[in-house]
Amino acid sequence: MAMEWTDDGIILGGKRHGETSVILEVLTRQHGRHLGLVRGGRSARLSSVLQPGNGAVVTWRARLDEHLGQFRVEATHLRAGHLFNDAASLYGLSHLAGLIRLLPERDPHERLYDALAVVIEHLDAPRIAAPLIVRFELALLAELGFGLDLGACAVTGGTQELVYVSPKSGRAVSARAGAEYADRLLPLPAFARDGFLGDSITTAQLEQGFALTGHFLTRHVYEPRAMPPPDERAAFLTAVLRA
Fold it and tell me: Which residue segment(s) compose the domain that 132 sits in?
């Protein structure tokens, strides 16, 4: 009996297979990061649909669950066209896809799926997308089991004036408790805690946010895998700050 399911998906990328087909990589809401063969995927009709960043309803079918299987794809959100015209959007999209590829294949992460959809919708507004990517990285760290504890001060237990993070424990530290050790702590921009994404986020705060998540991504994710931090991440931030 054949295996089959239908799910919402965000296209991450694809590679050629044979003369006419594509092996497509999609993040789906309920079935995680999933691969499947799209027959005729290199045709003029399908090539514009199978672009990274596009949203689609995908139906996967295979004889056995462990097989690659085949995708049938119906576009729902054709975002790629306007994203490909902007350097920051391209770098951001490439970095996000790379982060998703850190997740085990076919392991569902609905929270990350929803967060990715929000970030992609704002990639053409870099000053909004940048803090959203920081928050996406925080969510990814949590999904991988390395979540930061930003709810209360690690020293006093208080919840006010949390402006630092311990680079060792990943726990927040208040301004008063961390004053003596400020040069050894990571700054904690307010948007990383409260989700505020207004125009008042400064360049310095964006840089602090990327330094914060970059530290823990390198420590817990990239170094254990013998991977360097991705160039696309740094290129995205540079493009945002120039915009």
Answer: 83-150+188-242
